[in-house]
User: Fold this.
Amino acid sequence: MPSKTYLEAIREGMRDEMRRDERVMILGEDVGAKGGVFGATDGLQKEFGEWRVMDAPLAESCIVGVCIGAAMNGMRPIAEIQFQDFIMPAVDQIVSEAAKMRYRSNNDWGVPMVVRAPFGGGIHGALYHSQSIEAMFCGVPGLKVVVPSTPYDAKGLLVNAMRDPDPVLFFEHKRAYRSVRGEVPDDDYTVPLGTAALAREGDDIAIFTYGIMVHTALEAAERLAEDGFECEVVDLRSLRPLDREAIVASARKCGKVLVTQEANLAVSVSSEVSAIVAEDCFEYLDAPVMRIGGPEIPAMPYAHALESFYLVTPDKLEAALRKLAAY
Amino acid sequence: MPSKTYLEAIREGMRDEMRRDERVMILGEDVGAKGGVFGATDGLQKEFGEWRVMDAPLAESCIVGVCIGAAMNGMRPIAEIQFQDFIMPAVDQIVSEAAKMRYRSNNDWGVPMVVRAPFGGGIHGALYHSQSIEAMFCGVPGLKVVVPSTPYDAKGLLVNAMRDPDPVLFFEHKRAYRSVRGEVPDDDYTVPLGTAALAREGDDIAIFTYGIMVHTALEAAERLAEDGFECEVVDLRSLRPLDREAIVASARKCGKVLVTQEANLAVSVSSEVSAIVAEDCFEYLDAPVMRIGGPEIPAMPYAHALESFYLVTPDKLEAALRKLAAY
Amino acid sequence: MAVVKPDFANREGLDVETLRAMYRHMLRSRVLDERMWVLNRQGRAPFWISAMGHEAIQVAVGMNMDPARDWLAPYYRDLALTLVMGMTPRDHLLSALAKAEDPNSGGRQMPAHYGSRTHNIISTGSPVTTQFLHAAGIALAMRIRGEDAVCVTAIGEGGTSGGDFHEALNFAATHKLGVVFVVENNGYAISVPLEKQMPTPNVSDRAVAYGIPGVHVDGNDAIACYRSARDAVARARSGAGPTLLEAKVHRLTSHSSDDDQRRYRSAEDLEAERKQDCLPRFRTLLEDLEVLAPGDYDTMRAELVAELDEATAYAEAAPDPLPDTAMRYVHAEDA
Amino acid sequence: MAVVKPDFANREGLDVETLRAMYRHMLRSRVLDERMWVLNRQGRAPFWISAMGHEAIQVAVGMNMDPARDWLAPYYRDLALTLVMGMTPRDHLLSALAKAEDPNSGGRQMPAHYGSRTHNIISTGSPVTTQFLHAAGIALAMRIRGEDAVCVTAIGEGGTSGGDFHEALNFAATHKLGVVFVVENNGYAISVPLEKQMPTPNVSDRAVAYGIPGVHVDGNDAIACYRSARDAVARARSGAGPTLLEAKVHRLTSHSSDDDQRRYRSAEDLEAERKQDCLPRFRTLLEDLEVLAPGDYDTMRAELVAELDEATAYAEAAPDPLPDTAMRYVHAEDA
Ligand SMILES: Cc1ncc(C[n+]2csc(CCOP(=O)(O)OP(=O)(O)O)c2C)c(N)n1
Ligand SMILES: Cc1ncc(C[n+]2csc(CCOP(=O)(O)OP(=O)(O)O)c2C)c(N)n1
Ligand SMILES: [Mg+2]
Ligand SMILES: [Mg+2]
Assistant:
């Protein structure tokens, strides 16, 4: 299998599906001639024309609202939000409209739309180009929320998201775009939404995480392996719905659990994973469920020292894992 | 102490503070001549005039954005959102602007603003007049989120919210407006933000909840008391920050925990309470942490049978508590 | 049967059938609307939000659409418009009584939250203004596929204060999409009068901002409504782009069954508006033109009431949704 | 020192001091801006977003404001405007190098996210358009307290596509608030050209929608900018309400240091715009008018560069924020 970056896998996923399915189109700021600020749509306007790869005005509610209408009238739109931080003006269209359309119409209408947005920090993006605000949507019934950690998953999940009859939020860790490489088949394949993946097997501590933090967790797990502790790393991939079965299975098997994410912890994905474990694994637990994530501050600052302070590093994880191991 | 409804307590809180502090003003749809769709601002425009009690255009981003500006220029605005469901267009102003203003300006600027909104169901309000979407904000650093359950707290917390130097979201359960009565001093008093309250003492099961569900929980607790099980009912009141100390103390004391709320459970306040208990009470727990809340559907439907299906009733709580008691 | 006086017919391009159909649509909406209020007062329908006073523009717009290919993104006052598009009083009674069979939402939404895939009417939620962007998206899809179809969307003047209004007009105008943006300006957003909502009297003035035609029309004048709707739909269909079409209407009832407008409006105002009601005015015109012969009105009304009685009986007998169906259709189920 | 030719002075109402001050402000911003790019290319400042080409309108607006009572809700290109309001090159260098002492944000935000309570400049975040509503709120507070102060806010034409633009103009116009809404229209939102953003060439046309004056002015013509800024500020101060003031400017650089506009713009276009640069044009005018004598420019520039060198040295020597200060000021701490 050819090796590709996370970004290439995403671009290829869109390109291939647009070749296969005329209904797929992209609407977003700078997706045309510029090919997106990260290059995700590079070359697509040239191949598919200005109507299927449309530069949008600077108005996120417009981008999502128009995609909703187009989706209801037979298209399969992808709304690209330039940075996840800027999805806020579109929250009404996403949460009040897209998420509730099928339910409120008693299955008469659906919104087959993908909203793509890069998230996460560590790239000196400061307060508004570094956030991880996925939690805001992970509690919203009617939405599916996906975060791939590998190029293989990125393409396979994205293709599936484009084929889904309902709205899918597809969040891409921007630090992964060029730094994460992996094997990606050239041909058509999909990865099922709603399932977690085992990124590493182990039976001492179960680590639950997603996005680029999967790689951080793997690194920390290797360090512990040197001392004979085997961590299981579960890549959640699907943040809504969470793969409860996979979570419970790994937590029960290991008896010790660390949940980690880049986002701040309060009322987040980590809270829900923790709550699931507390509900369903009580008799299997050998230690308190531990969580490591961003601090409770509004966002990641710009100055290098402050940004570093924010981020969950392999060191921080390692320390937490050793504590858990010793419990 | 005179007995007042929850609604009266809120109205009185605003009125008294407006008399005391010229900077307090209200901006919202129908808050003027109509006195708000629930009557919360009834009579206030008459007393304070059209500039301090302003009917807003039908634009929630405008309501909140204008209040932010006014707050930065010396006012103490209250933004009234007609229904919590309609706060969505204002999410950008609340989360990107108000919540981050102090942090991003390194303490140079602050936004002393209260956003009031009625929430919750059981009044045949259907999908868009019944939601409980507070979780969306409870993970956002920079915000405080308050939900009173009694008239006493409603006034005391609201007065404190108006005096707070930072943005406070103040959510009022609309079914409580006229159905919940209690003693409310006529004079100035405050209830501290950030603290939970013990609504009932007990040492068998700790119930954590908020809003009108406190009353539901109390009713269920009385039923269990008949059989000798004493539930502790903790009224969270402050959903951000959560009163971690109070949560941990009651959970440790009781050893069994039920978290309940009207909202759906995934990635919610219940998740965070559960996660806190899982983190800090491991060695004290005698049973899995249990959660009871709304189902994972987009919102509460209109038809009576469907609405009833959604709601957490004393019966449902009682059944859960008996299960926990028997564990 | 009467014929339209030639000068009128020629001037307006309207024949007897069209004129009678217009009036019949308006009356059908009105009698249904009246029934809803009766059911509400009887405690049988907990909520109603009325189209009374808005019928002329709605019928005018609907009659210029082609239900086979055109689309509608309505708002909650568009009762008459949905009827012209093919929905029935029975459909809406099933909704008012929150029955399982309700084609709008299966009893999930409040009444007057319209929607029907069969009739190209997209599902309406409560948040105002969002539908304007959906209409732009619907028309974009038409444009991409090269269809000569039109999407109509409607809103109250209150809803035009929201950001989505601007974003939708801007997008549709930029790409010359086939949308008709209808504003039913009744001067109030619940209790907030126009002058506290916006600085100018006409929403249609805003068309200048988007380089598109902005038209305002007396919403009590059915013929004027018809004329402007015809132009706007034709323009959209031709590929020339959107129109902002504003009708000055009166809200002849309180905002909804939960509101009492006597709290914030004077009795004189309400009385004055009632006198301009589009229905009697149009009836008088049609009688003057002899399009309606003596007795026609009574016959028509009796027919409509009979239809309505049947629909009411049907809806009342229809089953409620079963409690656990609340769990269905969060997502597509056949996937 | 030279005097302004009387016909010019009389016509424009501008004296030598004002003209020289204008030019000096523009040049001060430009040399600072150039320094930022140098620091960026040297890897010392990871990010910059430039005001080059936008200086004339910014200085014109700023010079008509009263920093003692007026307020500014700027956007990220308003470097020159913040300088006129009293901020200094040192302030912005501290920000570019993300130093603890940076008065804008203590190194928390990206450079060009301006803010200073001392100078009535509210803190700017990255999300565009939100500041328009803040400006309306600031002016509302002034109105409630009966102050004759003015709030200026600025935005790119790209930002005017967002809903908050409409909501802010609508609200401010409805209540005749003392706001000047400045649009710096450089024809691009990053790579998206005007014609894909909006259907008309002038943002100022939208003023009709709000019943307020809409003015557009050549942003390379400093005198024209001054004139229209003076009118707009005066109108706001008088209580007559807001103005929508659009300057047609050129973005003489890529969108930011992360962008390369040669990917989406032709070399000819860029060259043509560069020739219309407001700075040389204004300098030529002032030299023609003999407001700037031979040698004045060099002296002025040398002074400004000296100030800048000192500021750069200061900023480079200033300490970085300490890691755990990241936890501070989520909320007020003295409560
Ligand atoms: C976003 C949003 N905010 C508030 C409401 C509550 N609300 C429902 S209808 C209405 C007034 C609408 O007035 P207008 O648009 O003029 O329509 P009309 O009812 O007069 O036909 C309001 C404030 C809502 N439905 N959606
Ligand atoms: C809400 C939001 N969406 C997207 C962005 C990303 N972004 C930053 S600047 C910009 C273009 C702005 O163009 P314009 O308003 O014309 O200002 P200019 O940079 O040309 O001066 C975009 C898309 C943002 N900052 N905020
Ligand atoms: Mg209205
Ligand atoms: Mg621009």
In short: Chain D touches chain C at residues 161-167, 170, 173-174, 195-200, 205-206, 208-212 (CB under 8 Å). The beta strands of chain D are 71-73, 151-156, 179-185, 188-189, 192-193, 214-218, 243-248.
